[in-house]
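Hello,

Our lab assistant flagged a job as stuck in the queue for most of the afternoon. It eventually completed. Since we weren't sure the result was trustworthy after the delay, we are filing this so someone can double-check. Below is the sequence as submitted and the structure that was eventually returned. Let us know if re-running is recommended.
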Amino acid sequence: MNGPSEVRSLIASYWEDPAAASLAGYLARGGYEAARQALTAMKPEDVIEEVKRANLRGRGGAGFPAGLKWSFVPRTSPKPKYLVVNADESEPGTFKDKYIMLRSPHLLIEGAIIAAYAIDARVAYIYVRGEYDVCRLRLEEALREAYEAGFLGRGIFGTAYDLDIYVHKGAGAYIAGEETGLLESLEGKRAYPRIKPPFPATVGLFRCPTVINNVETLAYVPFIIRHGGAWFASLGTERNGGFKLYCVSGHVRRPGVYELPMGTSLRTIIEDHAGGVWQDRRLKAVIPGGSSAPVLRADEIDVPADFDALAKAGSMLGSAGIVVMDEMTCMVRALEVIADFYADESCGQCTPCREGAPWLLEMVQDILHGRADPSYPDLMLQVAQNILGRTICALGDAAALPVLSFVRKFRSEFDYHIEYKRCDVEERYGGVSNPD
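-- returned structure --
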C-alpha cells in the first residue's frame, strides 16, 4: 500500500472496476484476506485495539469511535451477541451507502465478518432501507457467493468460528434509522426509539448485547486490518481517522459521492471536486451533514469537514450529505421542504416532536403564504428551542436545528416575506432555484 500522501481512495477504488462487485472480482483485489488474517492470526481483543488505533468514527452520523463501541460488549455475558448493520440510509442528502451496497457489497460483508468476530457475535443482520430493493437483492446475491466460498457459515477459514448474516428489509420509515428504533423494527415491532441507558451494547436486539454499525463504517474495517490502525489514522485528522465518503447534491456542476481524506475543507469539496456552484451563480448556503444539520452561510465553508471542526463551527458532519444552495434559493421555501419532512417522519412517541414539528411547518407555510405576523420568527425560535434535547431520540433535534439556523442566519428573508407578503429573492432574480 502507498504512503498516506499517495492514497487517492479506498472504498471508491472498487467502484472504478465493475467486476469488483462480484466475488471473483473482489478476490482478485485481495478480498477476504483481511477477514482471514483477523480470524486466524488475531484475538478478538487485538482486532478491537487495531480499530481503536485507527480512530475510525461511526459514519452514520453520530461519529462515535467504532472500536470503543465494540469494547463495550461484555465478553463474559452468557447471552448471544449480535451485530446489526444499519443500512437504513434515509437522511435527505445522503446516498453513499447505496453505492457501497451496489458496487462493493463484499467490502461490507468482509467488514461485518471482522466486526462480528471481534464482539463474538455468531449472527448478524443487515437492515436495508425499504426503498433500496435493488441494494437488498445485490446484498443477497453477494451473501450467497460468500456462503458458497466458505466465508460465511460453519468453521470459517478452518477455525471454530461460525457466522450467519441475514438481510432484513425495512419498511421505509426514517425513524427506523435511529439505532434503537431499528432494533424494535427488527424485532417485528413499531420502530419507537428506546430510552437510553441501557445502551444496545449491553441490552440490544432481543435484550442481548448488540453492536450497531453503519455500512460505510464497516466497509473501512478490512483496510484497517490489512494495513494497520496507525496507517488508517494517518490518512485523516487527529481524532478523525481515514477517508470519508462525502455526498454532494444541490446546485453544483458535478453532484455525486466523493471519497476524500477526513478533514478536507468544505470549500475544496464543493469547488474543486463537485465543480463549484452551477450556472455561474454565487454560493448562498451549505448544509454540511444531511438535512438535520444546521445550515452554514457562504462565508462559513472554509472549515475542515470532520466531526470536531464542524461541531466547533456550529453545525455537524452527520452523514456528510452536503446540500449546496445558490444565490437564487429562497431560504424560507428551503426550510419549508425540510420542516415538511420532519413533521411527516416524526414517530409521535414524544410530545415535543409530535406537536412541535408540525407546528414549525405550519408557521413556515404561514410565512410563505402571507398569513404570518412579525412575531413568527421569534416564536419559531422559541418552539424549536423547546423541542431541542427534550425527546427520546435525535429526531426532535433534527426538526429543531434547521429552524434555529435558518431563522438566525437568514432572518431578513423571513421578515421580508412577512412584511411584504412576497419573496425578495424571487423579486431580485425573477424566480427562485428549486430547493427540492
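-- support follow-up --
The delay was a queue issue, not a problem with the job. The result is valid. The longest strand covers residues 243-250. Strands lie at 82-87, 123-128, 164-169, 210-214, 243-250, 256-261, 283-287, 296-297, 321-326.
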